[in-house]
Each structure stands twice: as C-alpha cells, then as structure tokens.
Design goal:
Order of helices and strands: HHHHHEEHHHH
Number of strands: 2
Distance between the termini: 36 Å
Strand order of the largest sheet: 1-2
Shape: globular
Amino acid sequence: MQKKLKAMYYYFSTGEKLLWCISVLLIIVSFIIFDRGNYLVLAASLIGVTSLIYDAKGNPAGQVLMVMFSMLYGIISYKFAYYGEMATYLGMTAPMSVFALVSWLRNPHNGNKAEVEIARLKKAEIFNMVVFAIIVTVVFYFILKVFNTSNLVPSTASVTTSFLAVYMTYKRSTFFALAYAANDIILIVLWTLAALSDISYIPVITCFVLFLINDIYTFINWTRMHKRQEISQTV
C-alpha cells in the first residue's frame, strides 16, 4: 500500500499536484461558506476535479471517475429542473465515458496502460461528429422545450458541447479537452443563473470554474503528450 501511494505521488508532476490541491481546497472552502448542507455537490465536485487530473495524464482511471461524477451531477441537475443537464450526463456522458474507458484501455501507448495512445481525427470522423452534433442539438432542443427546461438556450448549447466532448474523448483526440472547456463556460453561466435564486449553488459554479482551468491544462498536456508520442513512434 505504501509503495502504491509513493508511486502515485511521483506519478503526478509538482504542478499537477498543486493544481489538484488548490482545486480541492477551493471546492471545500466554497462549500463551507455557501452551502454546508448539500454533500452531493461536494462529493461530485471532488470526484470531478480528481477525474480531470487523471484525464490530463491520459489515464483511463479518469473515465471511471467521470462515470461516477456524471451520475451525481445528473441528480443535482434534476433537483434544479435542469433536465438537459440531467439527460446529457446520465444518458450520454456516463455511457460514452464507459465506451471511452474501453477505447483508452484498448489503445495504450507503447503498452503503458496508464497512458492512452492519442489519435488524430480523420475527415470522415469530423464529418460524422458535426452531423450527429446537429441532430443531437435539434432533437434535444425540442425535448427540453417540452419539459419546460430552465434556461432553454444555454441548456441546449450544453448538450451540444457535451456531445462533442464525449465523441472526441472516445476518439482519443486532443481537442476533447477544448470541447469540455467550452461546456464548462456554458455551465458556469447556467449555474450562475441558478445561484441568483439560491446561493447554495455557488459551489457548483466554483466546481466548473475549476473544471475550466483543469480542462485547459489537459489540452496543453495532451498536446505535449501527442508530440512526444509521435516522436517516439518515428524513432
């Protein structure tokens, strides 16, 4: 057990450990100041930022944690009538994270199961992604409208960016992190609107602000990883 903890400690860089520690600290402080009651939000936020630091390393463990986060976040969204968020994370993000997990496990870089082999999106895959994104957006817009979803337009936009993110995660594309970053921005707007009527949702805003920072770092790190992997393949 001690060896595993020691290996995990050295697995992450100093910057990554600092990013995770600051994220956890801010989430806890925000919870103590503005909530103190909704432990579901606290648990989801902590699991979420932990999943992202593993995603940044291309580690399949990040997808396992994302499934857990999606389940908790779906429940939180249901409570505020953000049915788009609930349907997106329970019906799309969670299942696609499972598929992404399988894809990442089947495609380790040079046999290293702790790092996925990064791939470039092919033209056909980009075309399919755009077509499916349009279909998903249109279908969900009318579904959410029927259910009188709060803040319909940003909720629909969140579905679109979430689809793009999970699709590119499954395809092992570096750009999945940028799609998640775009989704984070939309969710910051959504939960800011929610917090106007209930300040206990401020910790959720804090969560997605930290997600945004982590997703930007993930994109930067995956770009480095991809260059390193390409160099190693040519040697």
